[in-house]
Amino acid sequence: MGAFQKGTILWPGGIVPYQPNATHPFWPLIIRAINEMNDKTVVKFIERTNQTDYVYFTSDNTGNWSISVGKAGGPHQVNIDKNVRSLHELGHVIGLIHEHQRQDRDNFIEIKRDFIDSGNEWNKNNLLDTMEIEYETEYDVHSFMQYWDTAGVNNETKNKELAKRIFTGIATIGISEIGPNVEGRSMVYKRDKNLRISTSEFLSPLDIVCINNVYRNYAPAS
User: Fold this and answer.
1) Given a cut of 70, is residue 27 above it in pLDDT?
2) Is 98 annotated to bind ligand?
């Protein structure tokens, strides 16, 4: 499941207004991600009317990112420049941190620093203080907030391993078994090193449990 950092501001009642932007180059994918969240969780992204706190989507060739984790207050920018991982950015909007930033990460995945650029996020070992709630579930390598296992690799490694990235259409497979070679990965799942990890375009069962329980219990309507 995706983890919530302590002190994150949640959206009251789980209602997240957004500004439609049909001219966005990846708008159909953003809508698909919104529908995935709306259909499977208590969080609801709704088209904005006159709300002052709302999400708007841009595409400025700087990658995929959210201006903050959780509700920023006022206009909340989300930039989408790729045809994958729109759902991942919505996870940041509602307050989720990366799965690999959980404090218990090292019990489940091994970070392969020899293959990672020195300035990359992976090399900072930046584990975050997550919410200690009774609904916390164990590490979920299937989570849509989990990074893919070649994230942050250096160019030499990337050239060798990029061809092993697995996609189906425009969606990334969550886990695929394509062999035990750990060369070129930025991380390896300790419980089964044969598994390849990608960022899913769908919510896992534990993602759904976590989001629903946190928003039902910690995000009352204003």
Assistant:
1) yes
2) yes
Where are the domains positioned within the chain? 3-98, 100-197
- List Cβ<8 Å contacts ≥24 apart for 117-126: 117/152, 117/153, 117/154, 120/152, 121/152, 122/151, 122/152, 122/186, 122/187, 123/152, 126/101
Domain 3-98 bears CATH identifier 3.30.420.40: no
* Candidates 36, 89, 99, 201; catalytic one: 89
Q: For 196-210, write each residue's pLDDT tens digit.
A: 776 778 999 999 999
16 pLDDT tier (thresholds 50, 70, 90)? very high
76 labelled ligand-binding: no
Cα dist from 12 to 17, 136, 181, 218, 222, whole Å:
11, 21, 45, 9, 6
Active site residue 132: no
pLDDT beyond 70 at 165: no
24 is in an annotated binding site: no
Instruction: Give the Cα separation of 1 and 50 in Å (integer).
Output: 33
Check: CB of residue 202 under 8 Å from CB of residue 40.
no
